[in-house]
Amino acid sequence: MAEELTLQAEHAASEAESLDDLRQVRSRFLGKKGVLSQRLKELGSLEPEQRKIQGQLVHQQKKAIEQIFISREDELKLSLYQKRLDQERIDVTLKGRYIAPGALHPLETTVRIVLGVLQRMGFEVEEGPEVEDAFHNFDALNFPPDHPAKEMQDTFFLAEPFKDKFGAPSLLRTHTSPVQIRAMEDRDPPLKIVAPGKVYRCDADVTHSPMFHQIEGFWVDKHVTFRDLKGILTELIKGVFGESIPVRFRPSFFPFTEPSAEVDMGWQNGWLEVLGCGMIHPNVLRAVDIDPNVYQGFAFGLGVERFAMLRYGIPDIRLFYESDVRFLRQLQDPLIR
Length: 337
Ligand code: PHE
Known about the structure:
Number of domains: 2
Distance between the termini: 87 Å
CATH topology of the largest domain: BirA Bifunctional Protein, domain 2
CATH architecture of the largest domain: 2-Layer Sandwich
CATH superfamily of the largest domain: Bira Bifunctional Protein, Domain 2
Order of helices and strands: HHHHHEEHEHEEHEEEHEHH
Bound molecules: phenylalanine
Strand order of the largest sheet: 1-4-5-9-8-7-6
Mean pLDDT: 91
Helix content: 40-55%
């Protein structure tokens, strides 16, 4: 009979499916009004001898049944815990959402490559304003008063109230050469500067855009010669396009350099013009109060779009400005940051 109660408890406990159920079942056996309390009370009516023997049995039984409920409680808690783990599982093998890191624009990449080569040769990077006055853009650069570049159809002049401090009309700079003037107004030589930036001309077709980018470079010191110009520009083009690229210098004309040259590089069995350069004209040095008998310098200007079109093999300049990621993605240069 004692055995039977333990079996009953075991069975009832195993039937309980929740902690609440189990608590109720437990009190049926072990509660104040439970079966075991009842048994303990009944001991009172027994003979002392019998009471002692039966008492021990009931106590052992109570211990055994308590243990049954403890085990079942552990079992239930564990299975509830397992169930929660299953329900709250996250699938760590699921792919995360891709966050596009972005990339440099191919024109910016090209600027950085060119600046990098020149910085390693001692040039410092400096910038000038895109809205210029005629003095810095033309006059100080030795353009004669009637030069065709000053005509309305070639240059963007700004309407009132944009005037320079002398009341002269202001304009969108047509080249980065005015940075030469600003740097030399600011400081005495030696100056070894490279100036990237936007420039503007009334011009648009597959190789020309009304806004494009140039990089100006110049070096002014007491012993700068045409030989330095040739060496540095040859180094620049080979540094950007590769050591094996042939480079040639061809006489040319700019109002602000004398002598002037254009630099061509070998391209598809022919030559392609990639930059303009020359020794800074004495009149330009005089315009900024530098004595041309003491100082000389060279200057050069190159088109960033032209460089980028050659470097990447792009046929149409407008592709650079359309922000079509399918185009831009093809030109990513993972090495340039
Ligand atoms: N400023 C000239 C241009 O825009 C380029 C140039 C710069 C030529 C410096 C000579 C020296 O065409």
